[in-house]
Known about the structure:
Number of strands: 19
Structural class: alpha+beta
Radius of gyration: 25 Å
Amino acid sequence: xxxxxxxxxxxxxxxxxxxxxxxxxxxxxxxxxxxxxxxxxxxxxxxxxxxxxxxxxxxxxxxxxxxxxxxxxxxxxxxxxxxxxxxxxxxxxxxxxxxxxxxxxxxxxxxxxxxxxxxxxxxxxxxxxxxxxxxxxxxxxxxxxxxxxxxxxxxxxxxxxxxxxxxxxxxxxxxxxxxxxxxxxxxxxxxxxxxxxxxxxxxxxxxxxxxxxxxxxxxxxxxxxxxxxxxxxxxxxxxxxxxxxxxxxxxxxxxxxxxxxxxxxxxxxxxxxxxxxxxxxxxxxxxxxxxxxxxxxxxxxxxxxxxxxxxxxxxxxxxxxxxxxxxxxxxxxxxxxxxxxxxxxxxxxxxxxxxxxxxxxxxxxxxxxxxxxxxxxxxxxxxxxxxxxxxxx
Length: 393
């Protein structure tokens, strides 16, 4: 009911413009205080919602705007003090930062956690860490890796929206039911990867093993030969709504616009957006674009690759995700623009995978339309590339 009161008021676009402008300004303010983007968005929404409630968003504010009867001067005068209240000032920013520090303490102090990482050119490890009840020291025991069995104790501190260990500091990103995520930085501010701290050892080991399997598949993946076959495969139509290719495990459901791989147990997006949706791998660090439609007029998705897939509803399924490099590699073929012949919506440009190379890059696969081949390489996460989602059957 509160939201409907806003939607139905006059000059609602002017109100939205104020919200978006102040929202972006607040993100920049919180970013200056070293908030990660997800935490800045979360804190920003909470702060602005509290201020909107205090300024009568459920009753007096919509009525005041409606009483302006379309007078822009009147609307501006009504919104000006509201806009001022919505902006996060320095004192509020300090309070939010202190709240964030307290949040980190509640997640870490006195806890036993499990840290795992596996990145190309970086040795894999699985550590058990015990943080003391004062939050001043960590004792780490290596459970997997070349240093297996070694125990090390080092000092730590939690302050200013971060926890500090040695020459590194760690900015809180998000928590889930299974783990906490921190962005890692060297003391000079340069990025140094991302930590995933699990609450449960079994979950940590599962993730550790899955990353090793992904890396093993990555190491054996090779580009498809550049020469396309001289003859096209025979196509059989099994029924009026599906298409299969002889000697292929892929089947396309023309009505649902998906392709199923029976060997791998995967279902692939193959609607028109599979050849047009494009965006960055991760969120931009500065600014925010809010578009009500998932696709903008230029074909670029208004959300990142990860969010686009998690929000996708296709063929009545909602459990879509961004594919790993190993998964997307299975689509490579020496024909049909370098992709398996059953796919109808294909771009000759690169597609994102969920597999990271390091903190700043992730793997993409380039399906080459001209040479009917494909190849993978790492791309900066802020680049814009195509998105094709997958789900496990």
